[in-house]
Each structure stands twice: as structure tokens, then as C-alpha cells.
Amino acid sequence: MKRWIPVLVLLFAAGWLATSLRPPQNTGGLDLGAFGRLPVLVNGRLKPLDTVARTSLLILQGRQRVSDPTNPVPFVATPTEWLADVLFNPAKADTYPTFKIDSPEVLDLLGITPEDTKIAYASPVLRTLAIFDFVPKQRTRFPFQRLEPKLAELDRQAQLAEPVEAQLRTSFQKAVVQLRDRVLLYQRLKHSVQSPDSPDFLGELVHFQKALPAGIAAVRARQKGEPHDADAFKAMRTMAERYDFMDKMGYLLAVPPAGDEPNPTAWKSAGHALLEAFEGGGINPNVMAYAALGRADREKQPGQFNEIVRLFRDQLAKRFTPQLAKSDLEVRFNAAEPFYKSMQLYALAFLLAILSWLKWPEVLGRGAFYLTLLAFIATTAGIATRMWLEGRPPVTNLYSSALFVGWGSVGLCLILEKIHRNAIGSVAAGLIGFVTLLIAHHLSLTGDTLEMMRAVLDTNLWLATHVVVVTIGYAATFLAGFLALIYVCRGVLTKSLDQATADALARMVYGIVCFATLCSLVGTVLGGIWADQSWGRFWGWDPKENGAVMIVLWNAIILHARWGGLVRQRGLMCLALFGNVITSWSWFGTNMLGVGLHSYGFMDAAFWWLLAFVATQLALIALAQLPLEKWRSFKAA
Amino acid sequence: MPPLVRQFRDFFVSLKLTVVLLALSIVLIFWATLAQVQLGIWGVQEKFFHAFFVLGKIPGTEVPVPVFPGGYFLGGLLLVNLIAAHVYRFRLEWKKAGIQLTHLGLILLLLGELLTSLLQVESSMRIEEGATQHYSESYRSNELAILDTTNPAFNEVVAIPEAVLSDGGAIQHPKLPFQVRIRDYYPNAALQMREQTGAITPALATAGIGPRIAVTPLRLTYKQDERNAPAAHLEFAGPEGSLGTWLVSPVLSAPQTFAYAGRTWEIALRFKRYYHPFRITLLDFAHDRYPGTEIPKNFSSRIRLQTDDARQDREVLIYMNNPLRHAGLTFYQASFERGDKVSILQVVRNPGWVLPYVSCLLMGLGLLLQFGLHLAGFVRKRTTTT
After folding, report:
1. B305 — phi, psi (to 5°)?
2. Tens-digit pLDDT profile for residues A551-591
3. What angle do CA B59, B62, B65 make, to 5 degrees?
4. Which of A141-145, A442-446, A461-465 has the highest average model confidence (pLDDT)?
5. To 5 degrees, how large is the angle CA B339–CA B294–CA B297?
6. Do B15 and A454 make contact, defined as CB atoms within 8 angstroms?
7. Which of A45-49, A264-268, A282-286 has maximum average pLDDT?
């Protein structure tokens, strides 16, 4: 019976993963799923509205769910539904609590008092839970409606803070600028396909269409100095200003290029397309389509809504079939959440593997291995999908480096586990896989993680060689460090580390350090060659370059110290642990300096996490210094 | 072998020395990375890497004392250690080939870096669309140029490095019929029109544009995107007495001229120039952005390259990651100005540029061989035990 447990675990987890591949279902009559798959151009990339909705919500409020703590039912079923409300029914969207505000000073600025933020739970159970912080005591998300009266003041404060360099701003200044940027993003979304103050934009456009010929005639006559219809002229000017503002504010480029336009990336904002109507030729049908979608959405007419979405898509398919395929896959990828699911599998694998050291090593160890393998397959599929969507090698920014470091480490762990079968590989894989995906999750809160590459990075050759090899070097160095962590924790705190396992761990660490040296050295030198190719110098002592060379030097130290007999098993483990410190510095610390060519992802909240991580590694090194008699393992039985 | 010599040898071939030197290098690099926030990348290179010792000042004084070994010191010792260890332990063995190749690559890499730090010359060439340029300018060094422009066909140029100005005193040059007295010199200064500042102190300058300008000394900047703009007041004096005092600075773009000894002279403190035996015409500069954003997608300059000996006349497209290599120089697309009408090319002369490529190959092969043999051994051992 026990033999079948690992297989059952595998089948169960695989089944759970498979459910995520099911296409997302619509909750109401409106086919919002198909609407979410419509592509728009944002930040230089053609992406589905679903992605826009998800990343916008992450930027505005740090999560994709739109809900209130006192009500378990969310306001909208999907991010796309929220986006549809923002685009077509802004008055409703303004009431959703989608602006996250933590700073008490900013709350004060907006006139939100502590009484306002306090949550009054109706049920006594929830009230009790709130006392112990199991559910939030205070509101941190507020609707646009609530901010509206103080927007002018917010803008003034943000303008005062803006001239200060980003790193030197106070926490209030940072919070103010951040909230102002969020409000701006929200307002820009609202101006994307219609004018938000218009109760019926389709009606407005129909009216505009009718008035256009007379208006254009009046404008032309006035330009020639001939007598003209002053009212028609004035109406035209008002409309022009209105659509010009829409063009300037609009966030989405939702209008595809006309059929005779040779450049397939020349998408336009709705405002821009409306301004073109003044040159004659009538109103762009795509703008009309979006306005009609808006009316159907507001009046809840599924038949009309779904028909317009279908026609719009058919129209796009004539020219953008490959892009639509990508857009569809991206929506499925968003819904499947392979990285989030893998994170849970890694956590489970870690627990099973740890338990296997205490009981049923064969059964639990095998179960943990299967779970790790499954999570590895899911992350591989996720990374591969991202690569196909972007048309790039796997690592293009800090977010994808976190994914890839985790992927590389887990891959090595699987090999170790296949060779040694002592669950150490699974424990390390579970831990590293979970932590790197958690880091990636936090990095994804800044917006779309599939970004366009800046000019100098726009080279797949070097992204595929230098960046990939260096990132694998990071992964391997981390893995050596985490194996050492297992050695120290197990050795000092438990009795489970016998001499054979300890020797096996030492061999693993040594092997991984060799691999790490190879990758980080070759990767660093390749980086130098790239620098020679694009900036004219092989080596420039840039912080990121320094970080990479520090990893190489540290791995070289470990190898030479071992070859020279300067360290034995325990010393090797301590050196490998310090490798974690150096790698984390090189990976994140150098980005926090705010100088240099590679500072592509500045984050300051992460600084404290980095410090905490370094502190734990130093503490472990100190722990390893305890005399062997004090260790719980290695005692002569 | 006398014991002293043996001790000496043992010290230089020891692995312990290697480990200590590597550890010190890590500390040095880490420290230099942090210092970059304050000192900027050039300052750090001079203070930490292109130096035998990192100098610190005794608190409260200006006395410099060495506080840490610098890049030349550590790199040099590592090189000695590496070579000594290999000479001492050298054995022609298949098993050792990987390690030997790796270290040979490393030796080349260190030597290459030394060569680069000694011989590399960087400058930049700024060209407007349609214009032709036959010199490039230094980023950081300036020179005082005194030109005899009497003959319209050519100029006779006397170039005096900025360092001479900072020494003060007076300069006498065989080609100049006058003496140049340095009245004052600021390594970095801001210039403003006197009317705008309402300065009351009398101007030191008596000729040229100087009397209308107020000079405010500034701290030296180390920021990567800023340049120090020096300023100096120079008095020219012939045997019969002073000819006047001029203000010079690279910020003053219009040339200042005066007549003396029947000739016309032009003076300018300008970025140091490197003249080349060819000229480059910028035909077109393009700056592509991703649609709907300001994210740069590509920068490129289409240029025409003509050599003075008229043996070459061709068009070249220089863009990101695709430089032009010509006459021992490499031209990279570095920057642009004025609404995409001006292209700035970085011009680098680095005779050692091939070495890193060779060493990368050697080290990669060496490590693959070494760890490959390790792995093969490990696998063989496992298959025999199981």
C-alpha cells in the first residue's frame, strides 16, 4: 500500500495542475473572456486586455482581486471585468476600492481619519480574528471616489516632491508621488476608449458624425476668411479639444492601423483616431466599435456585446493572426498562474522531504521528488511560454532572473536527487524554488514583466549567452550555499546527519561550486566581451560587473582553500554559506546603489530583506563555529 | 638552496597566498563599489584599481597614508603567485592540462587589463548631421590651445595640457612671442553674465569676453553624466609689458582673438583633441522608439568614412552592439543631442582588445576540461561501486 503513496501524490498534484489549463469561464452573459483576449498596444508591446487589467490592478493595489474585507464576494469576478468597468462605466469603477494607501501621512492628506479606516466586522468571529491579526483591522484600499476631492492637493504635493532625486525622497514624498502616479494611470485608463464624463459616448459619436460635414465646412471657410457658421465652428473646436485631451491621456493604443498602413505596430489611441476624423473620411469604425461595446456593457446586452467582440476580432484576424494567437496564449498563461501553482508545490515538496528524514524516507522522499519534478515542469512551461511571447532568451529583467535562478537551482537539485536519493536535493529544491518564486512575485508588483528591451540590451545573442550563463552561475552558487545551510541546520539542530550523509553533502557542495565557478567565470568574461562590443571597453568596474567578479573570486577561493587543505568539511560549508551573501549582494545589492549601467531595477523595500538574509547567513556561519561536541549530530553513539 | 631563498619561494608559490590575495581583492572590489556612489566610476578606478595603494587621509589633516592594497598591488602579486606556482609545480600531464589552460587564460586576462589601463585612450566625436569631423575630443582632459591663424590656409597650434595650468606660474614656449602668465585657475567653475548676477567684485579679465563674465568656482563633480568645466584667467605679456588678461573655459564656445607681433592669435581652453588621418561625415542619425513609448529601440549613425590618403571612401552604419573598427580605433554609438540631429560616437584606442577574447576561450576550455575530467571520474567511481 505504502508503495502507491508517491504515485498517488503525483497523480493528485498533476490533476490539480491540469485543472489550471482549463480555459477561464464567463460568469455572466457577457463574453468578457473573449473581450479580455482582444489585443491593444501598451508600452510598446501588443498584449491582451486581460494582461492590462491584471498588471494595472497590481500597480494600483498590489493584488488582482477587487474586494472589500467585510464582504467575501469580490466586486468583480475577473480583472477583465474590472477593466471593462473602468473603460466603459467609470462612475461604477470609481466606487471600487482599488487604491492601496499605507502611509498614515498620505491618508491624513486625503482627509481619511483612523475612524474611516477602521473595519467594523458584523460577525463576532471575524471581530475576534481581527484582534489576533488573522484578518485585517484596518482598510488599506480606497475607491477613487474617496480621493477625488483632494486630487488637486495630492498633485501639488507630488509636484513639490518630484524635483528631489528618487533615492533622497522622504517616505511621505515617495508615497505621495506613488499615489499620484497610480491616480494618473487610472485616469489614463479611463480616457483610453471613451471620454469618461460622457454618459453615452456612442450617442456623442453619432452626433459628432452628423455634425462633422457642416463643421469641417465652417472651419475651412473661416480659414479662407469667408463667412461661416460660427456655432458649427465653435462646436468643432470644442470637440477637437475634447478628443485631443483624450489622445494625450489615453493609456491604451486600442485602434489598429488602417489596412493601407505598412507599419503593423502603428496602433493609435482612440483620441488620435477621432482627431483624424477632422481630416475627412468619417469616424474610425474601431472607435465606434469600442463605443458600442461600452453601451452594450452598460445596458447589459450580452447578445450585442458578444457580437461586436466577435466582429472586431474577425476584423483583426485578417492582418494580425499570429499576434492574436500570442494574445490568446497569454490570457491562458495568465489564468493558469504556473509560477503561483509551482510555489505551492515547492512548499509541499519541501515539507515532505523534511519529513522523510524523520519517517518513511523511501515513500516521502519519492513523493517529494515527484512534486519537485512536477513544479519544475510547470515553471519550465511558464518560462518557455514567456520566451515565446517575448521572442527573447529567458532572462530579460530582474523578474525573469528570479524565475531563472530558481529554475536553474531546482534543475541541479533534481540531478543531485537522482544521483544521491537522500531527499537533500528535494529539500534544497523546495526551499530555493519557493523563495525565488516569492521574490519574483514581489518583483512583479511593479507592472508588466514582459517589457521591451532598451536599445543596448536589444541583442538576443548576448542575452542568450552572457545573461543566461551568469544567471546559472548565480543559481549554482546559491545552491551550494543552501546545501551548506542544510548541513549546518541538520548537523547542529538534529541528530539526523550521519557521517555518510555529511560526506555526500560535502561532495555535492564541492561539485556545485566547481560548476558555479565555470558558469560565473565564463559568464562574466562573456559580459566583458559584450561590453567591449557595445561600449568599447572590456571592463569598466560597473557595480554589477564588480558583483559578478566577486562571485567568481569567491568560488575560486573556495576551490583553492579546499585544494590547499586550508579548510575541511565544516570550513567548506561556511565558505559556501558566505557565497549566499556575496551572490545576494551581486544580484540585488548592486541594483540598490542607484549608479551604473546595470541598475535596471531599483527597489528600496527589498533592502531590509537583503540585510535580513545576510544576517541569517552570518548567524548560520557563527552557529557552525560551535565545537563539534555541541552539535547534536556526529556524536559517537 | 639557502633557507631564506626557500622561504621566499614557498611564500610566493603557496596556495595560502592565493586565497589571501583573492579575499583582499573581494574586499577591495566591494569597497570600491560602495565608493562609486560618492566618487563616480572614474574616481574609483583611479583611487582603487589603477593604484598600488588605496590612500586615506589622517583625520583632520591632508596627509595621505596607504590604508589598503590597491589594484596594481593585488593584481601584480596574484600574477607573480600564479606564474611562480605554475613554474614551480609544472608537470606535463593530461590531468593538469585543464587547470593550466585556465590559469594561462587568467594570466592573459590580467596582463590584458594592465595593458588596457596603461594604453587605452578614450575620446568622443560629436558630429552634426551633414557635418564632417576629423578629430575626437577627450572626456576629461582639457588643453589650452593657442593658434596662429594669420595664414588662412592652415593654423599653427600650440597645445598646453590642463595640468600645466593647474601648476600656476608662467609658460614660455619657443613658438610663442609672448609669455602666458596664469593668474588663477579653477578645475571646475560656472560662468554667468555679470549683468545677471550683479557681481560687484571687479573682473580680473581685461580683454575678450572675460570682463562681462562672473566666475563661480564649483566642487569637482564625479558624476558619470557630468563634466568638469575648468576656467582660468591668463595674462599674455610681451617684452614691452602686459597685453591684457583673458578668461578661458571650454564653456566659452566663441573663439577669442587678438593681434600681436604682426600676427593674429586665437586662444581657447578646450577639450583635448586627437586628430585622425581620416574624416567622418554624419549622413544620418536615427533614434527609433517602441511605438507609443519613449523607450529607445535603437540608435544608429550612417556615416561616410574618408581617409586622407584617399584610399578609402565608404559608407558605414554604426549602431548599438555594432561598432566600426578602423585604424586601430573603435567607434561606438554612445549618445546623441539636440533632438536627434547630433550623434556622439565614442572613440577608443585599445591595443589590447584581443586578449580578453583569447583568455575567455582558454579559461572556458580549461574549466570544461578540468571539471569534465572530475565528473567523468565521479561517474566511473559510482558505476564501479554499484
Report:
1. -110, 125
2. 999 999 999 999 888 998 999 999 999 999 999 999 888 87
3. 75
4. A141-145
5. 90
6. no
7. A45-49
Partner-chain contact A44 B30, CB within 8 Å: no
Query: In this complex, do A546 and B353 lie within 8 Å of one another by their Cβ atoms?
Result: no
**pTM (two decimals):** 0.86
How far is the alpha carbon of B106 from chain A, nearest alpha carbon, in Å? 10
Q: Which CA distances in Å does B187 have to A30, B10, B166, B338?
A: 70, 49, 8, 27
Assign A637 a pLDDT band (cuts: 50, 70, 90): very low
The domain locations on chain A are 50-190, 201-322, 453-630
Longest dimension (CA), chain A: 110
Give the cell for residue A192.
Answer: 483610453
Tell me whether B113 touches chain A (CB under 8 Å).
yes
Q: What cell was used for A57?
A: 490592478
Contacts of A385 (CB under 8 A, 6+ apart): A329, A333, A338
Please report which helix (H) or strand (E) contains residue B170, including its range.
strand B170-172
Helix axes A543-563, A468-493, angle to 10 degrees: 50
- All cell numbers assigned to B336: 546623441
* Per-residue pLDDT tens digits for A208-230: 988 888 888 888 888 888 888 88
Give the N- to C-terminal CA distance of chain B in Å, as an integer.
Answer: 50
Query: DSSP characters for B215-236?
Result: EEE-PPP--TT-----EEEEEE
Comparing A18 with B27, the larger pLDDT belongs to B27
Q: How far apart are CA B141 and CA B227, in angstroms?
A: 10
pLDDT on residue A600: 42
